[in-house]
Amino acid sequence: MLHAMDPITWNPRRIAIGGVTGVGKTTMARRIAAILELPFTELDSLYHGPDWTARSSFESDVDAITSGSSWVTEWQYRVVRPMILTRADTLVWLDLPTSVSLARLARRTLIRRVRRQEIWNGNKEPKLRTIFTDPDHILRWGYRTRNDVRKMMPDVEANYQSLQIVHLRSAREVEQWLEQLSA
User: How many CA atoms lie within 13 A of 137 on its CB side?
Assistant: First the structure.
């Protein structure tokens, strides 16, 4: 597993960004795509249909995107994770402290709700009080799944040995790695 200051000795062209809910996967993916001038696709926009329903074309859409020679996307949704890893040459694992990811998630959720911002396909954040009534509210989900990626990484390392895994543990390391990528 590589770290922020390890040299980038390969040419990243098919990049997945992994991490827990709220850690900044989409932001990181957009930044990498801009630096390397690669196409970026946000998986949430493919997964969520109107009224938060799962879109039936999700898997085939991800298949089409990851079949390309270059792309950047998030590594999420259990059903497509193996497909993404099989096709990726790089996995950037954002392993920031739980306090950081939960604070980012809370801030993002609150801003989206207060602004009544459309997220994907007409969907908006639910009323904040649903954190108490909905066990799958994004803030409860973020807390409940805060260690899931960490638990998956030993299997990822063992089963995808040709994959370059970059493990970033702080915002500073994120910036260091992006700076190196830009050089």
Answer: 17
Q: How far is CA 145 from CA 24, 56, 126, 138, 159, in A?
A: 15, 25, 20, 10, 22
Least Cα distance to 29 among 78, 87, 91, 84 occurs for 91
Start-to-end Cα distance in the chain:
21
Give Cβ neighbours of residue 159 (< 8 Å, ≥ 6 apart).
none
Would you say the pTM of this structure is higher than 0.70?
A: yes
Q: CA–CA separation, 138 vs 112, rounded Å?
A: 12
Q: What is the pLDDT of residues 33-80, one digit of tens each?
A: 999 999 999 999 999 999 999 999 999 999 999 999 999 999 999 999
> How many residues in the chain?
183
Backbone angles phi, psi at 16, to 5 degrees: -110, 140
Q: 32 burial class (0-12, 13-18, 19+ CB within 10 angstroms)?
A: buried
A 10 A CB-CB count for 89 gives: 15
Per DSSP, the three-state class of 41 is strand
Q: What is the pLDDT of residues 119-161, one digit of tens each?
A: 988 999 999 899 999 999 999 999 999 999 999 999 999 999 9
